[in-house]
Amino acid sequence: MGKTMKKYIEESKKIWNICGPAFFVFLCQYSLGAITQTFLGRVGTLELAAFSIENSLIANFAFGIMLGLGSALETLCGQAFGAGQQHMLGIYMQRSWVILNSISCLLIFLYIFATPILKLIKQDPEIAEASGKIARLMIPQLFAYAMNFPLAKFLQAQSRVMVMAAISGIVVVLHVFFSWLVILRLRWGMVGGAVVLDCSWWLIVIAQFVYVVSGRCGGTWTGFSTKAFANLWGYLKLSLVSAVMLCLEVWYYAAVLMIAGFLRNAKISIDALSISLTIVSWVNMVALGFYTGVSVRVSNELGAGRPHAAKFAVVVAVSSSFAVGLVISFILLMLRKQYPVLFTSSKEVQEYVSTLTLPLVLSIIINNIQPVLSGVAVGAGWQALVACVNIGSYYLVGVPFGLLLGCKLHKGIKGIWYGMLFGTAVQTLILLLLTYRTNWNKEATDAKERLEYWRGNNHVNGAEETEAREMTPQRVAETNS
């Protein structure tokens, strides 16, 4: 027992050295939108509802796609770094930039036509008009996402998360000051909030890029290369599999907010739910920190051919994240009458938020396990398999169950949320079972084959050979079955 505990503590230190700063990065970057939302909540209920819809539906949709496309880089960079193929990390990152910025050019239309799209899905017309105005101003944020996620995965694979934490911390302090100045002091309202948010995201991108090209990343960055354009179609297909997996997760709770727009007194419902989901998302930053930690540890250990170390990292990460979730949930239950005051001055919204505390804490407990298991999937390269699990548990179980309770049985926001929680619980149980039954020796072998393929593809010119060896979604699924 003593030897096992010592091993547990050692692995915990390795994971916390990654997930601690990573948690801070996620918290700061998520807080940029949440801070803007909080300041707009002091302006009025329409401003709060409009920004909540834009941030949760439009920006969140784009965020999910960018994050998902970038997670292919997380698998390849993590395993390449563990295998000692450091020179490939910069090439992978540049290839990801090409893909993400190309997709961003298509997503611009979502921002331009946000108002008619929101009206089409039966959102409140007044809220839809205001949200569309904000969305058009947030187009620069879309391209910041496209640049940021490859940079983040590149740095995370090398455990260079402290520099990311420092940059994010400085930016969030500046964001608070300028949001207060522009939104409240200068009274620029929604327009000012959108401009400040765009600038904050691009400041993060520029600072991280300067760090990467300054020579501090050693052999992982060797300059721009035409190899970034090799086999873009194959890399796009791998990225799309990753995007499907993570988009289904990121968009899931946005569906709760959209369904809330169908209820009576939509402004109050959306305001209360958006505040609760903001808290869930803040706490999820802890789980995402563990997601990053376990993803890096699993991918590094599999790339280095150490399957048992990868398996033990999973156990440590899941147990640690679950414990943190329990502590936070207990604190929120004790302060259920006090915390809503921090987000809105409306007494009616405050009371509504307080009544949502129970589904809030249940979400936190479950969500502190689920993202960590998704991190295992990304580190091992199981994206296609998990995408299928997400479709079934979220959209064939959770969403219909939420609609049934919330709309048909008239249970309101609580009914919608409990239904969606059921879908999340189903997905978490399936991922736990898959992780428990994993053959980690086989995963290490698969990681070696995957790296040999992608490294070799940079020198392959024959279209037939490329097509024959591409890691298609079907092949990924077969590998993990």
UniProtKB/TrEMBL annotation:
Chief location: membrane
Protein's cellular compartments: Membrane
Listed CDD domains: MATE_eukaryotic
GO molecular function, one term: antiporter activity
Membrane association type: Multi-pass membrane protein
InterPro entries: MATE_euk, MATE_fam
Keywords: Membrane, Transmembrane, Transmembrane helix
Top-level lineage group: Eukaryota
Any Gene Ontology biological process: xenobiotic detoxification by transmembrane export across the plasma membrane
Gene Ontology cellular-component annotations: membrane
Transmembrane segments: 57-77, 98-118, 161-183, 195-214, 234-260, 272-292, 312-335, 356-378, 384-404, 416-436
The protein, known as: Protein DETOXIFICATION
Organism name: Saponaria officinalis (Common soapwort)
